[in-house]
Design goal:
This protein is an alpha+beta fold. It contains 7 helices and 4 strands; from the N terminus they run αβααββαααβα.
Length: 192
């Protein structure tokens, strides 16, 4: 499936329901240095991010040596300042389960639902681009560990920076199916 196709379908379905989602503009606090370059407002998330970074086998020297660039995000609801992240199967790895348990907790807004999805999909998700390397996360499964870390970065820092965050799980689903399952969460955006 082409990159961005599921997000585009979720956006189109939301638009048909009167929820105007746009491409998320890049923001300075979401960048390639992660928790090593947090603004003061987000400092409370630093200890959890550091702990998880270490558990994921992150290399601080490599992470800090990356070219400083903003990271892309999926969709945005301008009226309430809410980020909408559409998570395809590669987001449901055993590494993502670790970030939820160690960084968010099962009682968080996404915790229990995403832990269940990680249990269901991790055997497939862990294989997705398993040999792809990632600076900052050396060794096998580097890209998967980096993705899990970046997802936690959004989870912890977005609220501290005044953004809402809705995650739309889409493992092995079309955008239409993903929107249908997440429509109640997205419909609430109109009342914010």
């Amino acid at each position: 499936m082409p990159v961005g196709e599921v997000e585009a379908a979720v956006s189109a379905m939301a638009s048909a329901d009167g929820i105007a989602l746009v491409r998320m503009p890049r923001v300075e606090w979401l960048n390639t240095h992660g928790h090593f370059e947090l603004p003061p407002q987000a400092a409370a998330g630093q200890p959890a991010l550091q702990r998880v970074f270490e558990e994921l086998g992150g290399d601080e020297r490599e992470q800090r040596s990356k070219q400083l660039r903003t990271l892309p995000s999926d969709l945005f609801y301008v009226a309430s300042g809410t980020m909408v992240e559409v998570d395809e199967v590669q987001h449901f790895t055993s590494f993502r389960a670790l970030t939820i348990r160690k960084g968010l907790g099962a009682a968080s807004d996404i915790g229990a639902e995403y832990l269940d999805l990680c249990r269901e999909w991790s055997s497939v998700a862990d294989k997705y681009r398993a040999s792809k390397t990632a600076k900052g996360f050396p060794g096998p499964f580097g890209r998967a560990r980096q993705r899990a870390y970046n997802d936690l970065l959004r989870d912890l820092v977005a609220p501290a920076m005044g953004y809402g965050l809705i995650r739309v799980p889409a493992p092995n689903l079309s955008g239409r199916e993903a929107y249908s399952l997440a429509s109640a969460k997205l419909q609430r955006l109109r009342s914010i």
